[in-house]
Structures are given as C-alpha cells and as structure tokens.
Amino acid sequence: MYKKQILITGGAGFIGSHVVRLFVNKYPDYHIINLDALTYAGNLNNLKDVESKSNYTFVKGDICDFDLIRSIFEKYKEIDTVIHLAAESHVDRSIKDPFLFAKTNILGTLNLLEAAKNLWNNNLKNKLFYHISTDEVYGSLSDEGFFTETTAYDPHSPYSASKASSDHFVRSFYDTYKLPVVISNCSNNYGSYQFPEKLIPLFINNICSNKELPVYGKGENVRDWLYVEDHARAIEVILHKGKIGETYNIGGFNEWKNIDLIKVLIKTVDKFLGREEGASEKLITYVKDRAGHDYRYAIDASKLKEELGWQPLLQFEEGIEKTVKWYLNNDEWVSNVVNGDYKKYYQEMYEDK
Ligand code: NAD
Ligand code: DAU
C-alpha cells in the first residue's frame, strides 16, 4: 500500500525526468506513474537509472486522448496527485506550428483536469492537481522590475499563449469545481538531459563540433537561469507544503544577458576541451531575431522563499561547470538525440501498446 500515488505527465522530458528521479528515489513509499507520449522531446534514456525501481511505472500515452486518460485514472484508482509537466515547450517550434501547441498545452491540460475532476468528484480530500507553468506567461519586462504572482498575464508567443491559457483553465477548475490545484511559474532551466535545441545544450554541442553559434538579434535579451535540480526540489516543496489555489513563482535570482552567458559557456567548454579559453568566440554568429522575442524575464521568487522556505542551492558558475561536464561526458546521449537513435530504445518496447 503506497502512501501516495502520483501521476507525473511528461516525465520522459528534460524537467520531468529530474522530477521523476527525485520522487522515485527519495520516496520509496510513493508510487510514481509516468505518463508520456514520447514525442521528439521524450527520451526514456533519461530515466534508465530508475526504470527498474518497484515504485515506478511508465505508461506511453497522449494527454490529448481523453479515453486513454480516463482508462489510466480507472486503472490506477488510487492516484491522489497529478504533477502535470507534459507540454510542447520550445518557443521556436511554436512559431512554426501554433496548432500543435494549442492542442497539447491547452486541450491536453483540459483533458487531465476533466479526468481528475471525474475521478475525485466525491472526495477531494488529500487530492492535488499540480500544474507546471512558465514565467513566459507574464510577457516581457524592460530593464526594471520583476514578475510576481500577481503580475497580469501578457503572453507573446504561441507557446506562452498556450501555457497562459492552460493556467487559466486550471484556475477555472478551482473556482468552478473546487478542484484542489496549485500552479508554479518557473524561469529558464538548465542542466543534464535537456534537448539540444534549447540555448545551453545546443551551444555546448555546437562549440564541441566547431559549428556556428546562432545568436538571435544582438544577444541582449535577458533570462533568469535556474539549475533543473533546484526546480525539481521546488516542485517537491510546493507539492508537500503549497497552499491549494495558490500560484508560486520559481526563479534563480540569476539574470544573464544571452551574449554574456554565451561567453561564459564558451570559456567553460574551451577549458574542458583544452582549447585556449575564449577561442570558440569566433563561432558566434549574429542571426535574424526570433519573431516576438521577449526582451527580459526576471522572477521574484520571494513568496516561495518566505512562505515555504525554498531557495536555489547551486550557484550559477558551479551549475554551468556541472552541466558542461555532463554533456561532455555523455556524448553518446547527445549523439543519440542528435541522430535520432534514442527513439530505437523504446520503439520495440512501447510502440502501439
Ligand atoms: P520537454 O520538451 O523537455 O519535455 C516535454 C515532455 O512532454 C516530453 O517527454 C514529451 O514527450 C512529453 N509530451 C509532449 N506532448 C505530450 C502529449 N501530448 N502527451 C503526453 N506527453 C507529451 O519540456 P521541459 O523543458 O522538460 O518542460 C516541462 C514543463 O515545464 C513544460 O510544461 C514547460 O512548459 C515547463 N517549463 C519549462 C521550463 C524550461 O526552462 N524548460 C521553464 C519553466 C516551465
Ligand atoms: O522562461 C521559461 C522558458 O524558458 C520555458 O517556459 C521554455 O519551455 C524554455 O524553452 C525557455 O524558453 P526560452 O525561449 O527562453 O529558451 P531558449 O533556450 O529557446 O532561448 C533562450 C534565449 O536564447 C532566448 O532569448 C533566445 C536565445 N537563443 C535561443 C536559441 C535556441 C538564441 O539566441 N539562439 C538560439 O539558437
């Protein structure tokens, strides 16, 4: 008999795999059910170290398939918590295919909300629907100010618009049906197992292969970076101590202009590759700006710090060194992702089941 049964969606992705790992290892008395469609961003190689643990179950499935979601909730009747991470997550892809983002991020979330509402209908005690969102819903800041939990939503990309919409649906289920929900909005994550289309892993990979580093616009946009394991710990804290109906902002208190971050990354990779530090700056190539590119994100995470006692543990310099080392030591993981071989691992196991 498990103390908790947690359905984690998107657990084969970047952040999801860290969240699954944390809960499976730290809470042997929790049953972790990882529901993931294994899109291009889902990779079971991210979870090889926990896949045989007895408190872990993987289910391949799409959150947009309502019958499937209902059948999972029927099969695992004891699910008392949902941590919802599954999403299309890359802004550049959302500019090319906004419909996919609306489908997964909005309709997929609505499906899960409806299924949880139906399952928990008669007993909402000790239940929690925890929705993982992003700081991008708040829009773009100038050089001053921070996003707080009460900042008005002002999304600009199809990705952030779809996440904002899903956040609104989550809140509407709290207001309308009293579904016990909590939302957290986090800043940019970095660390191991991130798909190399996002800035940091893409640039590490390109520096290693002496490929151009495509800097959008003038490289002056600002992001607030958080080590992914610190995000997973924040999720753990909010799940156990967060107040129902609340929103918590999660951030690194760690703002960087893209170009400054890129130069630190270059120095670090050069150092580990035995190149002259900074030599790879010649790879920097300024390219056309991202359409609708938000200028600055900066999170005020003081509510989470003051009310629930969370703060980031890893300093950025240490986090970047750890991250660069991980990608250099795991070149097989990177090359499998880049050449598509990572799909072979699970195709035979899960395809069409
Ligand atoms: P990711 O793209 O690495 O992983 C997404 C996961 O969701 C993948 O495993 C994918 O297979 C799965 N998925 C996609 N569509 C699905 C569907 N229809 N059904 C079931 N599974 C599906 O994303 P990530 O960077 O790990 O982000 C996870 C969550 O955190 C997202 O909700 C994202 O909006 C949010 N977030 C991300 C960041 C960041 O910096 N990466 C920051 C704040 C919030
Ligand atoms: O803020 C949280 C968000 O952070 C998450 O919700 C998203 O899921 C996640 O992808 C991330 O969004 P960004 O758009 O900020 O991340 P990305 O890594 O794509 O880009 C970071 C910055 O670097 C951004 O200003 C665009 C720039 N960039 C990115 C790429 C991929 C470049 O200059 N060149 C690039 O090739």
Structure description:
The chain is of the alpha/beta class. The protein has twelve helices and twelve strands. The protein has helices at 14-26, 66-75, 91-96, 98-120, 158-177, 199-208, 228-241, 258-273, 302-308, 316-329, 331-339, 342-350; strands spanning 4-9, 30-36, 56-60, 81-84, 128-134, 181-186, 188-190, 213-216, 222-227, 247-250, 255-257, 284-287. The strands form three sheets. A seven-stranded parallel beta sheet has the order 3-2-1-4-5-6-10, sandwiched between helices. A three-stranded mixed beta sheet has the order 7-9-11. A two-stranded parallel ribbon has the order 8-12. The protein is globular and about 65 Å long. The two termini are 27 Å apart. Bound molecules: nicotinamide-adenine-dinucleotide (NAD) and 2'deoxy-thymidine-5'-diphospho-alpha-D-glucose. Nicotinamide-adenine-dinucleotide is lined by residues 9-10, 12-16, 36-39, 41-42, 62-64, 85-89, 104, 108, 132, 134, 163, 186, 188-189, 195.
